[in-house]
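Final report, Chapter 2: Outcomes

The project's central promise was a pipeline that accepts a single protein chain and returns its three-dimensional structure in a standardized token representation, suitable for archiving and comparison. That pipeline is now operational. To close this chapter, we reproduce one record exactly as it appears in the project archive, with the input sequence first and the structure output second.
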Amino acid sequence: MAAAFRAASRLLHPFAKGNSWNQTRVQLHWRWQSTAAVQKARLEIQPEKRKPKTGILMLNMGGPETLEDVHEFLLRLFLDRDLMTLPVQNKLGPFIAKRRAPKIQEQYRRIGGGSPIKKWTETQGEGMVKLLNEMSPQS
């Protein structure tokens, strides 16, 4: 940190040349900023002085929200090399998605026209927040 101040002082030195008041003012300004930064860092390092926080990370594979979204969802699914690796995936993925889409659309039509996963994930998240607020209201 001291090296940074020396470098900054060298950069600002021409503006303060010949005027010791300007030079002192610049040094005081940098010293004040460094003190404030150190105090802030100490607060971040000392967790007992911070209010505890709780985070919830919920993940799912997603799903098509409407029947029209089914083909696009399947296409992304079959082209995603993190999920699966297929031979000639850039050709086979679209072929499988196009062929499977009508059957999958029919299944989603039977349960209301789209995937319920978003609704259920949001419901679970709200339940987790309520439960955590009851168990640990200070966080």
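Archive annotation: The CA atoms of residues 9 and 93 lie 60 Å apart.
This record, like all others produced under the grant, will remain available to the consortium after the project formally closes.
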